[in-house]
Write a structure and sequence with these properties.
Elements lengths: L4 E9 L3 E2 L2 H6 E9 L5 E8 L5 H4 L11 E9 L2 E18 L4 E10 L19 H9 L7 E5 L21 H12 L2 E6 L6 E6 L8 E5 L8 E8 L5 E8 L6 E5 L19 E5 L7 H15 L3 E8 H4 L8 E5 L7 E13 L2 E10 L15
Parallel strand pairs: 8-10, 11-17, 13-15
Antiparallel strand pairs: 1-2, 1-5, 3-4, 3-18, 4-7, 5-6, 6-7, 9-10, 12-16, 13-14, 16-19, 17-18, 18-19
């Protein structure tokens, strides 16, 4: 009986097309890394002989500073195709193997955010535009890559009159978008799919709520679907951000502590440890109260994850693909570590007949606060 899991590789300049058969025959392994907050990317390993067409296919990139080869990796489990990564090639190298008399071509790349980090547009003006409108203006340049913006407006837009000050861009598009996200207490990432060749560029608050994915099971005999799992409980890393709000009439600066949980980052356990450190965010005094609170909430969310788990699963045994930036349930780990988690990173490792995922889970509390976790997809 054939495996219900299939890998599709699309490759080409600008608009990727199905990879030719010689390319697929030479493909030995694939890795795709997806992070909730960091960069996402991929690695393709090919066998390389002296007469292989790969010698000219990827080496066309030699001497070109602009990544032009686009790669889309798509996994089909059953009848449901899912885009794992949509990016561009940024580096390749040939690794000779003297023992076997052949070589290996290693192609690495990043998601489509790499295209936003090529040209420095410092000094480009954005008169009368709020941060979210600036982000929309920047992302409009990348519609040719199938990028659809998903921009959440800032809570209290700070519109500067052009006669007083005109905001200008600093650095590349990617650096400036991330700078605007940091100033608003937001995050920015590109989510591939749902169709090959399309992606969503999300700029907004990091949301750790939603419908959980099917549960990960450990120590449950035949129900176990996780190959390995290690936990870390580090309450000493939790901090209490202290923001400062300036009263407009008296100019008095008032300190305001921000708790480690909020509506967008609710407690995922019954006991949230008390933060052991206080971090003063002095730069928030010049912001509006709402902006200062959002900045404090973002910092509190970053440092609130006192429980983390690193593990590995087999996709066929799990029954689907574990996705980053979503919740997932965990069973069989004991009273302190069962319950819901936020999937921070996922790394796909694929080769012939095998698809495994390395993952990192995080949450801001211990001891489950839910009576049960979903075991089947909705």
């Amino acid at each position: 009986m054939g495996s219900p899991l299939y890998l599709t590789l699309l490759v080409g300049p600008m608009e990727p097309v199905p990879a030719p058969k010689p390319l697929m025959d030479a493909l030995t392994s694939v890795e795709a890394h997806v992070s909730a907050t960091g960069d996402s990317g991929f690695q393709l390993d090919f066998t390389l002989s002296n007469r292989s067409p790969l010698q000219s296919f990827f080496l066309l990139l030699a001497g070109s500073p602009v990544p032009t080869i686009r790669v889309v990796l798509m996994a089909t489990f059953g009848a449901f195709p899912q885009v794992l990564i949509d990016g561009v090639v940024t580096h390749h190298e040939v690794v000779p193997d003297a023992m076997q008399g052949s070589s290996k071509l290693v192609v690495t790349g990043k998601d489509l955010s790499a295209m936003m980090d090529l040209i420095d547009f410092s000094g480009l003006p954005y008169p009368g535009l709020t941060p979210d409108l600036r982000v929309l203006t920047i992302l409009a340049k990348y519609a040719m890559f199938g990028i659809v913006p998903e921009v959440i407006p800032v809570i209290t837009p700070d519109i500067e009159l052009p006669i007083d000050k005109i905001p200008t861009q600093k650095g590349t598009d990617l650096k400036y978008i991330k700078q605007l996200a940091h100033e608003a207490g937001y995050v920015f990432y590109i989510e591939p799919g749902p169709l090959p060749g399309t992606s969503q560029a999300y700029w907004g608050p990091q949301i750790k709520i939603g419908i959980p994915q099917p549960a990960l099971n450990v120590n449950m005999d035949a129900w176990t679907n996780v190959e390995s799992l290690n936990f870390r409980y580090e309450p000493q890393n939790s901090i209490l951000p202290l923001i400062f709000i300036q009263e407009p009439t008296t100019k008095m600066v008032l300190p305001l502590p921000i708790p480690p949980v909020n509506p967008l980052d609710p407690p995922l356990g019954a006991f949230v440890p008390v933060p052991q450190k206080i971090e003063e965010m002095e730069d928030t005094a010049k912001l509006s109260p709402a902006q200062a609170v959002m900045r404090g909430m973002a910092r509190a969310s970053e440092a609130a994850d006192v429980v983390s788990a690193d593990g590995t699963l087999d996709v066929l045994r799990y029954g689907g693909l574990l996705k980053a930036r979503q919740l997932v349930g965990l069973r069989g780990a004991g009273v302190g570590f069962d319950g819901l988690y936020y999937v921070d990173t996922v790394k796909h490792r694929m080769k012939l007949g095998e698809h495994k995922q390395d993952f990192t889970l995080k949450r801001n509390a211990i001891i489950s606060n839910v009576p049960a976790v979903p075991t089947m997809p909705f």
